[in-house]
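FW: tagging you since you asked about this chain on Friday. Here's the raw sequence from the shared folder, copied in full. Didn't touch anything.
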Amino acid sequence: MRRSLVLVVPLLACAPEPEQPVTHDLEQIYAEAIEFATNLEQLDAAPIMTSHLQGVGLASIWADPDSAALIRTLVPMQLEDISEPFPEGSMLVKSNFDAEGNPVDVLNVMVKFEPGYNPSGNDWFFAAITRDGEVIDDIAGNGGKVEFCRDCHSQTGLNTDLVIGLAPDQLK
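HL: got it, structure written out here
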């Protein structure tokens, strides 16, 4: 008799929420994001492996000063303690590189919006933009185009307000 082992991995598959009207100035958010090296604080000591770019890339993580301080308290894949939620206005930018460390024209942006904006995404606004601030393939908002952002962050940032922490030896 042949037996098979079936592994079931639960995913956070849910119907997309209706897109909430954005009351924020997205052009201003994108302008701040592309100036990440001037406006934000780098968190990593050296580029880290990233799940973006089909798992073949590296990235540097940048955050506003208050968010950077909070990120430094996170434990990656934290399963027991719940971290403090990030405040409205928090901004995180992931600057992406290819496997050889050359910059690629992709920035991943997370900004915490007001309560109720995106409840299943902890009210985070997600976007993929070029280094010039253009939205890539309409990937911005809280609807179907960014579900993959929310779903991945929901699985790996379980109790950290969907923010994926860095290991202590990765922090700057």
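FW: The helical segments are 26-34, 36-39, 65-71, 147-156.
HL: agreed, and Strands lie at 41-42, 48-50, 57-63, 91-97, 103-112, 124-129, 135-141.
FW: great, closing this out.
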